Amino acid sequence: MSTIIVGTPVIAGLGELFKAHGLSKKTVVLFDEHTRKLFGDNLLQTLHHEGFQLKELVVPAREASKSFSVAYRLYGSMIEADVDRSWNLLVVGGGVVGDLGGFIAASYFRGIPVIQLPTTLLAMTDSSIGGKVAINHPLGKNLIGFFHSPELVLIDPSYLASLPIREIYAGMAEVVKYGFIADEPLFNFLDLHFSDITSLKEPYLTEAVKKSAFIKDDVVKKDFRETNGLRATLNFGHTFAHGLEKLAEYRYLRHGEAVTIGMVCALFLSHNLGYLDRESLERGLSLLQKFRFPGGLVKRRFLSLDCDLLLESMFSDKKKLNKKLRFVLLRKIGEAFLLEADIDDQKVLQAIQDAMARFSQINQR
Ligand SMILES: NC(=O)c1ccc[n+]([C@@H]2O[C@H](COP(=O)([O-])OP(=O)(O)OC[C@H]3O[C@@H](n4cnc5c(N)ncnc54)[C@H](O)[C@@H]3O)[C@@H](O)[C@H]2O)c1
Ligand SMILES: [Zn+2]
Question: How far is CA 67 from the centre of its chain?
Fold first, then answer.
């Protein structure tokens, strides 16, 4: 399992740290174009001074980089540079390069160690932890991949200073999710310090990142391959979110924005089915109403959308394959469970309608 280190500056003394974890100082460093510009020179210089042998790789900063053709090109560069099993791969960036780098590390020479240096809030609190790595297939996202745990996850919240506010909110959705599913004190802390965290104020930011990363790690340790229902609770709000993302053609909404709306729906569903009391529902909604969405298209289309369309989008693949939707619900704030029973479509639709009625009043950023 992985060692997670949270601190600033996290890259000080990497040589020693690698040694302590049995990692060689022969490292392929994978960036996207943005993280190369923002952090590349400083990081590569630091590693160089520590005596590392380095091979640098850069991919375009977009979801489409999680593809077989990009992976194939990178394998080629690594083979040409004589990278073998004695090397490791350090990934510097958000979930896109995290997933791509993890996929390459899991498959190259039958697997080399991967070290994650996440630079988005989503990657620090979610995608870099837990060892799920994947590329996309034209028929669906994240369909081709492995479970390949990182040796190290190195988290430095000060890297977030350059991250656009939209990405901060998107990552914050997953942070809030951990409060909902596993930790009521974290929920209260996030409720109290929401704007401190989104404006990157310390010590609140580091506290929120650290708590989230360790909750994810803990859940993953107890259910690595998602077999006993626990890891599935990380998908709170996600069944609705996936329907929304599909409606948005995976372009107009950030994943975290879809998850924010999805969690509003999931709160109503939990309440309407009798699992969550009214007071907890209202507390949950009041935290989610602190999120801000970009104006224009996003606000127009997704904060007051046609509820039947969303239901249809959620069910479209499933019904064809005769499969059921799975919902994660709350029993109270800090306690989630995977509902095994079937739910009537009308109940799901009602939750979406309740969510839209409440959420369409949200403030424009
Ligand atoms: N493996 C998992 O468990 C898991 C979990 C959740 C999401 N994911 C995957 O993660 C991906 C999304 O990740 P993401 O939201 O981090 O997006 P991303 O990697 O596309 O990063 C978002 C944007 O921010 C830029 N960026 C990164 N760090 C920056 C910084 N510090 N300052 C300024 N700009 C910076 C990137 O270059 C990019 O343009 C999706 O592909 C999703 O499938 C994987
Ligand atoms: Zn998510």
Answer: 18
Residue 77: partners with Cβ closer than 8 Å, 6 or more residues away? 55, 57
Closest by CA to 177, choosing from 301, 46, 60, 284, is 284
| HSE toward the beta carbon, residue 281, CA cutoff 13 A | 19
Residue 209 CA to residue 226 CA, distance in Å, equals 23
CATH architecture of the domain covering 3-161? 3-Layer(aba) Sandwich (3.40)
Amino acid code (one letter) for 178? Y
Tokens 């949200």 sit at which residue? 362
Choose among 95, 105, 100, 121: nearest CA to 27. 105
Which ligand lies nearest to the CA atom of residue 32 in the structure? 1
Stronger pLDDT, 200 or 295, i.e. the higher one: 200
The residues with which 54 forms a beta bridge, in sequence order, are 27
In one letter, which amino acid is 309?
L
Residue ID of nearest Cα to ligand 1 atom 10: 95
Helix (H) or strand (E) holding 237, with range, is: none
In which band, very low, low, confident or very high, does the pLDDT at 364 lie, cut at 50, 70 and 90?
very low
Domain boundaries, the chain: 3-161, 164-359
**pLDDT tens digit string along 250-299?**
888 999 999 999 999 999 999 999 999 999 999 999 999 999 888 766 66
Name the residue with the closest Cα to ligand 1, atom 30: 163
Q: Any idea of the CA torsion for 362, 339, 243, 225, to the nearest 10 degrees?
A: 120
CATH code reported for the domain at 164-359: 1.20.1090.10
Rounded to 5°, the CA angle 140-144-147 comes to: 130
What separation in Å is there between the alpha carbon of 275 and the centre of ligand 1? 34
Select from 216, 181, 178 the least CA-distant residue to 197: 178
Residues recognised as catalytic:
110, 132, 174, 216, 226, 231, 235, 238, 242, 255
